[in-house]
Amino acid sequence: MPKRVDHAERREQLAEALLRIVADRGLEAVSLRHVGAEAGVTSGMVQHYFRSKDELMAFALEVVSERVQARAAAAMTGADSARAEVRALVISLLPLDEPRRLEGRVALAFVSYSTIRPELAAALQQNTTGMREHFAEQIRQVWTEETRLGMTPLQAATGLLALVEGLGMHLLGEHYAPEEAVSVLDAHLELLFGQSMRRSG
Amino acid sequence: MPKRVDHAERREQLAEALLRIVADRGLEAVSLRHVGAEAGVTSGMVQHYFRSKDELMAFALEVVSERVQARAAAAMTGADSARAEVRALVISLLPLDEPRRLEGRVALAFVSYSTIRPELAAALQQNTTGMREHFAEQIRQVWTEETRLGMTPLQAATGLLALVEGLGMHLLGEHYAPEEAVSVLDAHLELLFGQSMRRSG
DNA sequence: GGTGTTACGTTACGACTGCAACGTAAAAGT
DNA sequence: ACTTTTACGTTGCAGTCGTAACGTAACACC
Questions:
Q1: How far apart are CA A184 and CA A181, in angstroms?
Q2: Is B28 part of any domain?
Q3: Residue B91 forms part of a structural domain
Q4: B139, B156 in Cβ contact below 8 A?
Q5: Mind listing the pLDDT tens digit for each residue in B147-159?
Q6: Would the Cβ of A3 be found within 7 angstroms of any atom in strand C?
Q7: Does B111 reach chain A within 8 Å, measured CB to CB?
Q8: Which bases of chain C are contacted by protein, using any atom under 7 A from a CB?
Q9: Domains in chain B: how many in total?
């Protein structure tokens, strides 16, 4: 079989195996042998594709980052209003079902990990920044001088993203029910996008 | 020296050593020997006070939880309004200086950890729930039928806590400047507590 | 159709891990 | 004063870790 393999594809397969381990046993369970076993190969094979464990970890983190971005891009197509698009994107970020809970655990683990290994934080930061700017753009499109809430669109976007990720963390810890998080999110969106906020003034 | 030691005190010293390790080398660097070395003792001594590593970890997590709660209690005394109290509490939660960044890293690591070890999640969940209810109570005290924003006080409280923890995560990842996070937070507090929100209606 | 390269698997090594067992010295209890 | 308990330190063990080295079989190429 030599020579015929797609290098990039193999690396992604291994990264996926790693992510599966992180999702249900945590970062500390990641070892070359475990990743190999999870992928159905030996640790030597893992070594063949990654010079070190650090390189493997860094690659897996990038895969996570790309996956989040891809999910975001997919979620925001076909919405008929800025509000609907933002809501779709933000809902797609929340760990509301089991597969997304797994992904959320992985993401959280890597966020914590990159806190100690700052050289890996770039990918995650890019993600946050991109999302923040995207939200800001959407908000800018619908806000007028009258409807703005005493903050800039970028501030509103930053707050929205922080709110969503905070809700996500709480959901991963099962601190309250998913529908409660969604209701909080919808109330916030109503503040940002709804006209009814001035109904009582 | 035997018999004269305060068991609880020793355990806390060891837990603090562990937390120091987590803060600057991450959860994966925690081992009985490292904890002992950090505390200036041997791993055998650590074994004497904790039957297993898991027990040590669980104890350290509880210490973290108690510390957060203590900080919260300290931060909310002496405020002259509900809004000021909430702001003081919430600001004290953000990793705005280096010591609190260390604590934040530890807290984040344990949140991620407890995601995989659900039996340890109770302490953290209690923390969240307590905070949430406290915020809700404060908000309830100042909200009238007119000023409420289309959500319940508990929803507003949940959103505020999620926002703060999300901002905290982003700050740990250095995704933007601390003062930016504070400005977002203040804008949100103005929405929740300010009367000026109806100035344009 | 050799030849060289690629893709693995296998093995080995030194370091590290959690944990159990044992040793010892100091104080408390009697 | 003698015994028991407590508080450690030390040692050892079986297992796992990351990594380097080596072996080998299958294809690409000329």
A1: 5
A2: yes
A3: yes
A4: yes
A5: 788 999 999 999 9
A6: yes
A7: yes
A8: 5-11, 16-21, 25-28
A9: 2
